[in-house]
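Model: Ready when you are.
Researcher: Fold this.
Model:
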Amino acid sequence: MSGDDPTAPALRASDADRERAATQLREHCADGRLTPEELSERLDGAYAARTVPELQALLADLPALEPERTPAAHAPTREHAKRRVLHAVGVAVLVNLAFVLLFFATGAYGSFWPKWIMLLSLIRLAFLSWNELGPGAADDEARLGRGGSERLYRVERGDLRSRRDSRGDDERAQGPADRR
């Protein structure tokens, strides 16, 4: 059976095909091409679609989305992350060395107070290293995409307003007596 034969049965859509179409519809809604009502109708159609042409019909009047950049091209490489951590270690060493020198230059009276600055620097470096080199570092940007969690929130809700705007609308909808 070739794809040019009009009598050939249409290919059945897989769950992955339906999910891919639903994701594209959400992206178009987030970009303002679809209203939330249209999105809801088309999502119902996408999840009910049995064949690939039915899915294609839902996207026919919408422009093709720009292909997503791969995580390797979008997220910084591991080498860049290592350089950032190494740079932060160098800065921390220089700052701590300056405070130790200050301690000894002033006569080294009392307890060794630079230890607290060293402890805070160590904690900061640990968090930075985990954030840059930890197991989830490369996945965050790929999972959330450009715009991070704010965009994820808007797309999942089918809402074109930001989280801050939607909170403001709720507060404006309440009268002064309702806020008390």
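Researcher: Now this one.
Model:
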Amino acid sequence: MPPSTDRLILAEMTLNDLPALQAMMQDPEVMTAYEGPYSDSEVLAWLTRQIDRYHDDGFGLWKVILRESGALIGQCGITWQDIDGHRVLEIGYLFNRAHWHQGYATEAARACRTWAFTELGASEVFSQIRDTNIASMNVAIRMGMTIRSRFVKHFRGIDMPHFAFAIDRATWEMLTDPLFIVRLREKDDSGTTNVDDIDWDAL
């Protein structure tokens, strides 16, 4: 079962979600990192690929539903990807422009990060991000990820430089250890750490 949060429900997509996906993936601003909007056939192929992943892998990109309204506001999930010559688990996310800047991408991505470690037993989780996509990089950083490498993907006839962000299990366990948070607060008492500068929700 996909993860969920206080504000969001993640669930498998179906063919009934095609119109909502088309509205999202045919928005030029949403699809800037993909070199422009997808055609109807490209969106259908994308959706079909996710449905195949649910069957083959048990996971994929899930739809993100806003609890308070029931609206489909984005996609977030885990897929197998080839990054810099290695087959890795990757967290991907894409959201409707009307729901940007409200913390939904970070919230969903963190839930997927935890799910990958707890349900899949992952040793490391990645996000591949185009080097011009600052907003997506910020989400990766809020997941506790750091840059591991830079590589080039050839997509839609274009060479696209990307960064490979990742977080390993040991780092995730440290960041979610209550004693680690206590130690940070103790350091703050000594003046070496400013609690106000820590994103506690990310830990």
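Researcher: Key takeaway?
Model: Residues 191-197 have pLDDT under 50 and may be disordered.
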